[in-house]
Amino acid sequence: MIESAFVFDGQGRVIQYHLPAGRSSGYIPDSNDLWALLMKHKDILGGVAHTHPGSGPSGPSHTDVTTFSACELGLGKRLLWPIATDTHVTFWGWSGPGPYDYYQIHYPACPELTRLTDGIQRLRELSEMRPA
Amino acid sequence: MNDIIAQPQVLRADAARLNITWSGNNGELTDPISYDLTDADIKRMASEAVRQGSIPGIPADPRVDFTDFVVDRFPATEGVPFPRVMIRPKTPFGR
Known about the structure:
Chain A has helices at 32-40, 62-75, 111-127; strands spanning 5-9, 14-18, 27-28, 45-51, 81-84, 89-94, 102-105. Chain A is α+β, with helices and mostly antiparallel strands. In chain A, strand 5 (81-84) and strand 6 (89-94) form a beta hairpin. Chain B contains 1 helix and 6 strands. In chain B, strands 1, 2, 3, 4 and 5 form a 5-stranded mixed beta sheet that branches. Chains A and B meet through strand 3, helix 1 and helix 2 of A and strand 4 and strand 6 of B.
């Protein structure tokens, strides 16, 4: 699996998949294009999902939480940060008090979650493809 | 006659415009900066400017923190005839 991401709106709809050159099984590189996309859609933005290799539930790395924090500070709003492996999806959000204090969030079934799950399934498929 | 006629801005050869994004707002430092400043110096300068509220379009914020932001440098082009320096949040995932 090659790590991949997608940006979604507050209703769980995919805004755009993020499959930049230079990504690997453990890394998605910094991208000015991704930041421009987040700013462009900041008013409707719900969050950014990304994949981790392997199976089972997975939590954010230090790189992940520092990116979460930076983007939220830049946008002036909090987001949802799902992480998908081959078998599980976990949802992460800021709870504080520290800038990197992100905790797992459990959601009841709802239409937004269903749409988000559909996007995540497509993301898994895209993550199996080698980058161009 | 004392007509005021807008003059095109001319920057020194080593000068650049500093663009900052913070808390959903985007603005430009009114004075040019040196293109060759270190990232740390640029972040320090931007932090001070946001704290003081001296960037048009960005309200003053004493809690500004550019720790996890990156500095991008763009040389002058035909379309934008002066170098630009931009501070934005970093966006990598993984590891």
